[in-house]
Write a structure and sequence with these properties.
3 domains, five-stranded mixed β-sheet, Trna Endonuclease, Chain: A, domain 1, binds zinc ion, alpha+beta, four-stranded antiparallel β-sheet
């Protein structure tokens, strides 16, 4: 049972991951907020798909999401369900068959009812109190109009404020003052993945090419943990003979900070890195990076076809060499 559940969960992660990638490619809003679907619970909508909150919260890092903030939803005080229904009840008999009425109160005798219960003249103006029969002339002096209220259709009680309770999907009743709150994260696409956005198509092309031309198992955009415990986003991971190497694509005009973060990523992961970067960058970093740990592939003109062969050769030599 455990195994089959694990598989389902893994599928769910890759589904969420794929949806986040769609979101990134569409360049639509990078913020993913929870929504409460009455009767069902809390969902996140990514690229038009609704995913139950638990499926995302458990594995959000693997799906390239970061927590940006939180929002709260009211929940049952007994079972913490967020599926709540507001009930408006008669404060006298607690029945819920109520009618909205326009209230009139006769100050002298204290009678209060809906405007339709008072006796009116030919013009439809309030004339007499139905309880004591006295004439009502001036609003605000003889009688008042406090506004809208309710009449219980079961016991006839008239009141301004109904009793409000919340009933959960398991039939527990909570009052407003005892309500619980459930906090849910608001996610955003991780800054690491947002940085990858300009080269995402290239990364996926590389993944397909490695499998197709070299028969090497490759995986694009993967979250892996380094020796320090930090999680890194690898652009492409290459698996061979129980070992792993990575391909990193640096966009054109890469700055020293970005190049350095690739270096520290490689050091923390302790694996060989093939870095694809523009020719100027390649010439510069060739002087400082140790070829035992880094293979630099210059990106000529930024087109995959122009550096494809050099890349395939580099991958091939690493896979072959480390295989021996
Ligand atoms: Zn409940
Ligand atoms: Zn009632
Ligand atoms: Zn009266």
């Amino acid at each position: 049972m455990r195994t089959s559940r694990g598989i389902v969960e893994n599928q769910q992660i890759s589904n969420v991951k794929d949806l986040v990638l769609i979101l990134l490619k569409e360049r639509s809003g990078m913020e993913i907020s929870p929504t409460l679907v009455p009767g069902f619970g809390v969902y996140y909508s990514i690229a038009g798909f609704h995913i139950p909150a638990d499926n995302i919260i458990k594995h959000y890092r693997e799906a390239f999401l970061e927590v940006k903030g939180y929002v709260s939803f009211p929940s049952c005080s007994i079972c913490r369900s967020t599926s709540l229904k507001l009930e408006v009840l008669c404060p006298n008999c607690r029945w819920n068959d109520l009618l909205r009425i326009d209230l009139v109160v006769h100050y002298e005798c204290g009678f209060m009812a809906g405007v339709e219960d008072f006796i009116k003249d030919d013009q439809g103006v309030i004339e007499k109190c139905p309880k004591c029969g006295k004439t009502l002339k001036r609003v605000g002096i003889d009688y008042g109009r406090p506004g809208l209220g309710f009449r219980c259709q079961r016991c006839g009680t008239i009141f301004q404020y109904p009793l409000t309770t919340l009933r959960c999907d398991k039939d527990h009743v909570t009052t407003l003052d005892k309500l619980n709150l459930e906090r849910y994260p608001v996610f955003t696409v991780s800054s690491d993945l947002q940085k990858v956005q300009p080269v995402i198509d290239l990364i996926q092309k590389i993944e397909r090419e490695l499998e197709h031309s070299l028969g090497v198992r490759a995986e694009a955009l993967k979250i892996i943990k380094g020796k320090s415990g930090t999680v890194h986003l690898a652009h492409v991971l290459i698996y061979f003979n129980n070992k792993v190497a990575a391909i990193e694509v640096l966009s054109e005009g890469v700055n020293i900070m970005e190049a350095m973060s690739t270096v520290s990523k490689a050091v923390d992961l302790g694996i060989h890195f093939i870095v694809i970067l523009d020719e100027k960058g390649a010439a510069e970093y060739r002087k400082v990076l140790n070829p035992a740990y880094f293979t630099l592939v210059p990106m000529r003109g930024g087109r995959f076809e122009d550096f494809k062969d050099v890349l395939l050769e580099s991958v091939y030599s690493i896979v072959k060499e480390k295989n021996i």
